[in-house]
Every structure is written in C-alpha cells, then in structure tokens.
Amino acid sequence: MRLHASDSFVLGTHALRETDRIVSFLTRETGKKRGVARGARRPKSAFSGALEPMTEARVVYYEKEGRELVSINAADPIRPSFALSKELDKALLLSTLAESLETFVSESDPAEPFYRLARHAMDALFSGARAAPVAAYFDVWILKLSGLFPAPRECAGCGRPLEASEPLLFDARRPGFVGAECRQGEVLRLTPDARGTLTAFLSGPLDPAAEPPGLAEIAQVARLSRRHFLGHELKSQRVLAEILG
Ligand SMILES: [Zn+2]
Predict the structure, then answer these.
(1) How far does residue 29's CA lie from ligand 1's centre (Å)?
(2) Which of 61, 119, 162, 183 has its CA 20 to 30 A from that of 21?
C-alpha cells in the first residue's frame, strides 16, 4: 500500500452505499484516479465542500497494487469552485470542464498539460472572465492536447500550407481545415474575426478581460471535431450550448 498526496481537480462523484462516495479526480502527477471517500455522504463529513466539480484540492489517498479504486483519506480544498457556481452559465461550465477532462484525459496521457489547462481556465474564471471565452478556449485546447484539434495552417486534404490571405474553410467530415482545391461539399467558412481569435487562442494564454470575437464559430469547430471523434456530443456540452446561445 502506498500513500500519495497530490494537487487535484475533482471531476465528479457518485453515491456508493449509504454513506460513501466514489470520487474521480485529476492529479497533477499521475493522471486520472477514482477512489472511495468514506463517510462523504454524511452531512458533517470532513469532505463537505471539497468535492464539487473543478474544486482544486490536495487529495491524500492510498493506492493498493492491482486495485482500480484508491482509498481517499482526505481532500483539503486549495480553491473551492463553489464561489463560481452562483451564476448558472459558470456552474454549467464547471460541469463541462470536468466532463471533458473525464472524457479526454486517457490513462496513458501525461497529466501535467491537462492540469495546467484546467488551472488556467479556473484562473480566468476567478479573475472575472465570462463563461463563453473560457469554454471556447478550453474546448480548443483539450482537443489540441489530445491530438484532435485540426491544424489551421495546413490543408487537411493535400497537406499544403494555408496562407493567411486565403479563406479558412472547415470541413467537418474530415475533420480539418482545407484549401479551396480540396473542398468537397459543405464547409464552414471562418470569419476573419474568428480566425484571429483562434490564432490568438492557439498561440498564448487567455486574457480574462478580453472579449474575443467569433467565439460561436470556434465553439462550432470544436464541437464538430469532438463529435467526429466521440460519435456523440457530451451531455454537459449540450446544456451549456443552450444557455450560452
Ligand atoms: Zn488541399
């Protein structure tokens, strides 16, 4: 049996027996874990307030070799997400961030880049960023870290470099950006605004005070790429999309 203490983001919980919960969490060092938090369903549990989606906490857990579930000793909040969930769009966004991490971080991925992305999105929200830019930025990056976001500088049909002077066309069937010579059927033509925002997203951090234009188009590219890979849309994403319009 080994004792670990790791900074983590809580991804989700569900009830186990009368008094316990199963908690899934993303650790900085060792990726996604699932474990049992004993007594977490009791009203005055030591875990209360520490297990909301996207709360960052120091999780202390025991791991037994050959066992899938770890045993969670303690979860001491570093930054509870609770303060953000008073606004409906942000509360829904927290569920979306957690579900996306749950879905896209695989056991074999190095966890650190995903952890940094989660931290960056939460920093932006705590600095007052609106839900929509954080959602779009996070969607682009979680797909990129998973190797699933199409390269906007290269034609997905023939591989030639796409120039800044030509229109940026997204073909959802590939999915990828294509030049006019490789276009087949319906494509999504990104406005210059959306293209500028996408380029900024891919090359640097999100400015929490910025109001980047073209977010709906970027969200659409991310949504179509995600759906192409998963074969369906994530539940929390559908609800969030309705709220953000
Ligand atoms: Zn081409």
Answers:
(1) 40
(2) 119
Task: Provide the residue ranges of all domains of the chain, joining segments of one domain with +.
Answer: 2-80, 83-244
Q: Measure CA of the first residue to CA of the last residue in the chain; give whole Å.
A: 49
> What is 2-80's CATH number?
2.40.50.140
Cα-to-centroid distance, 134 and ligand 1 (Å): 31
Predicted TM-score of the model (pTM): 0.94
Give 143 Cα–ligand 1 centroid separation in angstroms. 22
Q: Which residues surround ligand 1, an ion (CB under 5 A)?
A: 155, 157-158, 179, 181-182
User: pLDDT digit string (tens) for 27-47?
Assistant: 998 899 999 999 999 988 999
- For 196, other C-beta atoms within 10 Å of its C-beta total 14
- Indicate the burial class of 209 (C-beta count within 10 angstroms; 0-12, 13-18, 19 or more): exposed
At the second CATH level, the architecture of 83-244 is Up-down Bundle (1.20)
Could you tell me the distance, in angstroms and rounded to a whole number, from the CA of residue 64 to the centre of ligand 1? 52
SS3 of residue 176 by DSSP: strand
Q: How far is the CA of 187 from the centre of ligand 1 (A)?
A: 14
